[in-house]
Amino acid sequence: MDFTSIVFIQIAIFSCLAIVFPTSRSSSSIKISAAIVLILLSTSFYFRPDLMAKVGLGAWAIAILIPLLLMRQLESLVINSQYMAASRFAKWLRWLVPTDGMWNYHHLLKGIALAQTGQMEAAGEIFARSRASERTEIGRSATALLYRSTNRWQEYIEWVQQRLTPAQLQLDRSTNLAYYLRAFAETGDLRRCIAEVAKLDRDRQLNTQYLNLLKMYILAYCGRVDAAILACQSLLSMYPAEVHQFWIGTAELAAGKKDAARQELRQLKQTTTDSCIQQDIAWRLSQPLPNLDKLTPYDWETVAGMEATVIQDAGYSSVTPNDVPTPVTNFIIAINVLIFCAELFWQSKIGDKDFTFIPWGGLSAPLVVGGQWWRIITANFLHMGILHLGMNMLALLYLGKFVEYRLGTWKYLFAYLVAGLGSMAVITYIDLKWMTTPHITVGASGAIMGMLGAMGAIHLRGWRQAKVAAAGRQFQAVLFSVGFQLVFDLTNGHTSIVGHFSGLIIGFLIGLMLLGLPTKELPRLPSS
């Protein structure tokens, strides 16, 4: 079995195991599909190993990969308020993902799209039909949207309390629970909203994205303008700018900047084409915000804790803000891609079977000690194929952007080069010391694993020294990634475990060293 097949089989197995794991939040249909794929992989491995790659990978691509990618695209359309496009997409997608309420989901999205364009009567009819089956999540979501689209918050609270069980409310935590808690604040009971969100935060019972959204709501209602801006710009950057503007305007109103906030909200109402935003603005301008005088010192302490968490999460989130420049990462990726294109051109000229990495600077221990030391550098920019390049560059895009954002341009470049050169030097030493048959090593994996190590150092420092809980969670994720890489390397004879883990250790140590020097500060609230 070739390298590409082995890699994809490993990815299929690990991804399916992660989906069927008891703590996974994946939908039931995806879990069933993952279990079936695991059975097919096991069966083909036992009876027909030669067909394992075709049968298992085909099933994985059709049942897992493609549905997940399409569902992610649907989620992106919904987050960006492109509801009519999402409705058309969901109507087609339901044939591929027919369970978990997907069959009628497009009706719900169409209703939101109609409400978005001001066709409230037509939207209400769709919501009324969809809510007929309150036993399903789609039906309950339709009811939530029916009340939310008309700002009937008190009626919605009464409906939830009368018709939904705590189990149903928890099941719909990304829709009904989020709207339910917002409804308390919109009707003046901000204390209840703060207490419930704080409990969800302590128990980690809600998806991080929706939890951050609820925290931003509370910060806005409490007039924490700078914290609301920071949350919108970093943790909630996936939402449309109009949503950001509405909640920042809400925060300014609560902070007492009434004239400026009202002017901004009126201007937004005139420029937006989203009827739901227009209705929200009309509601905000006509209804009083929660009375902050009713909050107790304990409530304010809780809000301050949420504010601190937003600042910490913004600093240690593994997702780098889109507007942050990362020129070194982009340059390194471009160099690797250009060199790979040159490799392909040369292969087409001489034929694949005659191609060797030696003339291009591939690492060979005997040649390095013979005086060609520069191979320790050049080998970092060569790749064996499109899969090898693609996996490395995707990893670099994720890890490199974060490390460059946190360490700064020149420290990041230093860490990347030292990890890459150091891992190649370790490979050279091991090859000469213990290997009887010299081999050629190429790839940026050592340097990229060094960036994983540097990321671990950043999170470990934030967790142990700054006492940031978010950094502790991210450090655990780094450890999980290291464990995954170890299993991947041990079950794949085509990768260099020495190069990977020497780069990881070097990057971790370099990261700790650079963090001891003046470095980029965590995001903080601007001075008001």
TrEMBL record:
Its main location: membrane. One of its GO terms (cellular component) is membrane. It holds the Pfam family Rhomboid. Keywords: Hydrolase, Membrane, Transmembrane, Transmembrane helix. It comes from Chamaesiphon minutus (strain ATCC 27169 / PCC 6605). One of its GO terms (molecular function) is serine-type endopeptidase activity. This is Putative membrane protein. SUPFAM superfamilies: Rhomboid-like. The lineage of its organism: Bacteria, Bacillati, Cyanobacteriota, Cyanophyceae, Gomontiellales. InterPro entries: Peptidase_S54_rhomboid_dom (IPR022764), Rhomboid-like_sf (IPR035952), Rhomboid_protease_S54 (IPR050925), TPR-like_helical_dom_sf (IPR011990). Belongs to the peptidase S54 family. The chain crosses the membrane at residues 6-23, 30-47, 53-71, 357-375, 381-400, 412-430, 442-463, 497-517. Residues 371-515 form the Peptidase S54 rhomboid domain. It is a multi-pass membrane protein.
